[in-house]
Amino acid sequence: MDSKKQTLVRWTILIVGGAITAAMLYGSGMRSKVHEVRAVTNDLKIMGQKYRDAQRDLRYRLTVSYQLEARRQLALALDEMEKRNFGVAQERLASTISLLETAQKAGTTAPDFSLLITKLKSVSLTATENIGEQRGAINDLAREMDTTLSGFVQEFLTSKKAEDDAEPIKRSSLNDVPLPPGNEIGRRSKPVTP
Fold this sequence. Notes:
Elements: H1 2-82, H2 86-105, H3 114-122, H4 132-166
Helix pairs in contact: 1-2, 1-4, 2-3
């Protein structure tokens, strides 16, 4: 009975000692990975910020695009009016309103066109011999839109040009991929150039 107890104690000590040794080895391994985990966490934070900045920039660029397209639609409405296509011109005005409303919903720091939108909504084109009054009203709205957009677009283009100059685009190559550890035989001694 005594030898069974000794064997049981020995096995218990061996198992508990092995578990403690495994826990210590695991802990020391995890402690050595803490720096890598922190580096990856910081990289993820930076990538998240870049992603949010890219989303904001995309929304801003789309807003500018919608506003410029709205201005183009307004010019096309004038052109259709000159051709006496009043129905098509009215559709172009509706498209202008829709584009400006979409740009307003984006919520960026773009110019506010709410007053211009209400003025455009009040315009109703009718087929008449003398289109001078209607053309004059739309030209006034186009000039108002041009003055609002001119400073904004110029500021937008210069700020985006400065950002584009600041960050050159890097092309990835095969040399950017780290080689896995292992046998070095058969690998190229010189890097591959694209």
